[in-house]
Amino acid sequence: MRRTIPFAGTITASTADNLISGSIGQAYEIEELIFHFTLGSDFKLQLSVYVCGAPADPGAGTPVGTNVIGTLGQVTYVVGDESVIHLKCGIKVEESPTWLMLYCNNTDGSNHAVFAAVVINTIEPAAEPPAEKPSEEEEV
Q1: What phi, psi does 45 have (nearest 5°)?
Q2: CB 121 within 8 A of CB 1
Q3: If you write DSSP's letter for every residue of 103-130 in order, what string do you get?
Q4: Under 8 Å CB-to-CB from 132, ≥6 apart: which residues?
Q5: φ, ψ at 103 (rounded to 5°)
Q6: When comparing pLDDT for 54 and 59, which is higher?
Q7: Domain that holds residue 82
Q8: Does the residue 130 lie in any domain?
Q9: Contact 21/101 with Cβ under 8 angstroms?
């Protein structure tokens, strides 16, 4: 089942913060990351998405987990100004439960609004084959 997990908030000037999803209790594939940078962000708001095995406190610093953007290339965050960035991923997450965390590092002297979304597709567990019935010869 395809789901979009939204993140929104305001990051105070010269601080870093985590925005945290709810628990995801099954395997899934991260299909796409979407980041909306408002006018005035001036490439000073660094955003990263992490897959974590436990939720972190919002002010806990860089999350412990897999940096999704870092798995796509050499840069571990995205920046922008008055733009929307779409990153296709195709990253499978087999662990369960996990949490998605948007790590926001505001290097500017002004507060900035954050709008982002992670599109996932949950993977249904494989159905177990039905148990075989014993043959009539084995029943004797």
Answers
A1: -110, 110
A2: yes
A3: EEEE-SSS-EEEEEEEEEEE-PPPPPPP
A4: none
A5: -90, 125
A6: 54
A7: 2-123
A8: no
A9: yes
Tell me the CATH number at 11: 2.60.120
Any domain includes 131: no
Answer yes or no: is 118 within a domain: yes
Rounded to whole angstroms, the Cα distance separating 10 from 114 reads 6
Q: Do residues 34 and 124 touch, judged by C-beta distance below 8 A?
A: no
pLDDT tens for 97-134 read: 999 999 999 999 999 999 999 999 999 877 676 667 66
**Scanning the structure block, which residue is given the tokens 């939204």?**
6
Is residue 128 in a domain?
Answer: no
Give dist(CA 84, CA 34) in Å, integer. 7
* Integer angstrom CA distances of residue 76 from 69, 127, 130: 5, 37, 45
The verdict on whether omega for the bond into residue 55 sits within 30 degrees of 0, i.e. cis, is no
Mean pLDDT of the chain: 91
Amino acid code (one letter) for 111? N
